[in-house]
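Priority: medium. Attachment 1 of 2:
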C-alpha cells in the first residue's frame, strides 16, 4: 500500500544545503526581517522545519490534507477530543487502548463529554448509541490486545449519515497495511512510538486530517495546547519511517509463521492473529489490510492462570518482557498485569483478556529464532507445572 520507494522519496532533500538527511532545527525562535515578515516560521511551538517534514510525510502516507506531530500518542488523541464541547458524545470501540480509556473516562467525562463503548466489529452496534449529539466515532483496528478488526468503510457510511467524524487509531496497522482516510475516515491518529519510529527509542504521536477545515482546527489546538514533538524526536521518527515498509513486511511475515506455529501447540487455548483464517474478523482484515496482517499476536494458555503466563514471559530470550510494541526487537507482555492492569478483572475477561493472555510483538529477528525461543518457554512451562500423583 505504501512502497518503500514512495516513502523514501516523500522525504525532501534539504532545499538550503542539499543535505540528504533531514536537518534538525534545534531552535526556539526564528529571526524576522520586520514584525510579521519571516520565512514561514516564527516560533517553534507553532512550527518547526524538521517537524514540518514529518507532518507533511505523514499527510502523504495517509493520503490526508495535513499531518500534526505531538509529544506522545496520547497527546495526539487529546488534541482530537478538544474538537468537542461539553454535552457532545463519542461512540468508541470497547476494546480501546487503555490510555485512551483513562483519558476519555477520567478527564473528558468530567468535562461533560459522554462516551459510549461498543463492540464495533459489528458496525450495526454503533446504531444503538449514535445520535444527533454524537460528534466522534472512535475506533482502533486491529485492537489491542485481542486484535479485533472493524470494517472501516461500513462504519464511515454510518458516521456520515449522522454528521459525526470517524477517527481511526491506525497504530497497529500503520499506513503500510491500511489507509483509513481512503476508506472514509476523517481523522487518523498514531502512536508514533510504535511502528512509525520503530526502534523503541522515543515516544511520539501523529494526527492526520482529511479536510482543510479539520486541519485548521487541529492546527489551532496544536498551537494553543502546545503538546508538540521536539525536533530531535521528529528527526528520529522520520528516520524510522524510512524503513517502515521493510520492517512491517518482515514483521508481518514472521508473525504469520509464529501464529501458525502457535496454532499447533497443545498448550495454547485462544489464539488471536487476523492473518489466520480461524480469526473471527479474518475476511474484513484481508480486504482492508491488503492481505498483510501486522506483527502482533496474542494467545492464552490452556492452563489459564497468571502463574503460567508469568512462567512463560520470564523464560524467553529474544522476546523481551516490556510494555510497548512495534519495534525492531521482539517484545512480549502479560496484559493482565501490565498494559491492562488498570481494567477491572470482570471487564478484562469479558473483552477476551484472559488471566494467561500473552501478547507478542514480533521484531525483525528471524522467524526460526523466535519460534525456538517460544519453544523453550513452552518447555519451561511444563517443568514448572507440579506433577500430580495418581
Ligand atoms: C501506545 C498506544 C497509544 C498511546 O501512545 P503513546 O505514544 O504511548 O502515548 C495509543 N493507541 C494505541 C493503539 C497504542 O498502542
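Attachment 2 of 2:
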Amino acid at each position: 500500500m505504501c512502497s518503500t520507494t514512495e516513502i523514501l522519496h516523500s522525504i525532501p532533500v534539504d532545499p538550503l544545503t542539499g543535505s540528504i538527511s533531514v536537518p534538525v532545527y534545534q531552535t526556539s525562535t526564528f529571526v524576522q526581517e520586520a514584525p510579521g515578515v519571516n520565512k514561514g516560521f516564527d516560533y517553534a511551538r507553532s512550527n518547526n522545519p524538521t517537524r514540518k517534514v514529518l507532518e507533511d510525510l505523514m499527510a502523504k502516507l495517509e493520503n490526508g490534507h495535513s499531518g500534526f506531530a505531538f509529544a506522545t500518542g496520547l497527546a495526539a488523541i487529546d488534541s482530537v477530543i478538544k474538537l468537542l464541547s461539553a454535552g457532545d458524545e463519542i461512540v468508541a470501540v470497547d476494546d480501546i487502548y487503555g490510555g485512551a480509556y483513562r483519558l476519555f473516562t477520567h478527564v473528558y467525562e468530567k468535562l461533560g463529554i459522554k462516551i459510549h463503548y461498543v463492540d464495533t466489529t459489528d458496525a450495526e452496534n454503533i446504531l444503538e448509541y449514535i445520535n444527533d449529539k454524537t460528534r466522534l466515532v472512535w475506533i482502533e483496528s486491529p485492537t489491542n490486545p485481542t486484535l479485533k478488526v472493524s470494517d472501516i468503510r461500513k462504519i464511515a457510511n454510518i458516521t456520515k449519515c449522522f454528521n459525526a467524524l470517524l477517527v481511526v487509531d491506525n497504530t497497529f496497522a500503520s499506513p503500510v497495511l491500511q489507509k483509513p482516510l481512503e476508506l472514509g475516515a476523517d481523522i487518523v491518529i498514531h502512536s508514533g512510538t510504535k511502528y512509525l519510529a520503530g526502534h523503541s527509542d522515543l515516544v511520539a504521536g501523529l494526527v492526520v486530517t482529511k479536510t482543510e477545515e479539520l486541519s485548521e482546527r487541529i492546527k489551532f489546538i496544536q498551537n494553543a495546547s502546545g503538546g508538540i514533538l521536539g525536533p530531535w524526536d521528529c528527526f528520529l521518527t522520520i528516520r524510522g519511517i524510512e524503513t517502515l515498509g521493510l520492517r512491517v513486511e518482515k514483521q508481518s511475515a514472521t508473525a504469520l509463521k509464529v501464529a501458525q506455529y502457535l496454532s499447533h501447540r497443545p498448550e495454547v487455548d485462544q489464539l488471536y492473529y487476523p492473518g489466520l483464517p480461524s480469526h473471527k474478523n479474518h475476511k474484513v482484515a484481508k480486504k482492508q489490510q491488503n492481505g498483510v496482517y501486522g506483527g502482533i499476536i496474542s494467545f492464552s494458555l490452556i492452563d489459564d492462570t497468571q502463574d503460567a503466563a508469568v512462567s512463560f514471559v520470564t523464560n524467553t530470550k529474544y522476546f523481551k518482557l516490556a510494555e510497548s510494541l512495534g519495534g525492531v526487537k521482539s517484545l512480549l507482555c502479560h496484559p493482565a498485569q501490565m498494559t491492562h492492569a488498570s481494567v477491572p478483572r470482570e471487564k478484562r475477561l469479558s473483552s477476551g483478556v484472559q488471566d494467561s493472555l500473552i501478547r507478542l510483538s514480533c521484531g525483525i529477528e528471524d522467524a526460526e529464532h523466535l519460534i525456538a525461543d517460544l519453544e523453550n518457554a513452552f518447555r519451561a512451562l511444563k517443568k514448572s507445572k507440579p506433577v500430580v500423583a495418581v
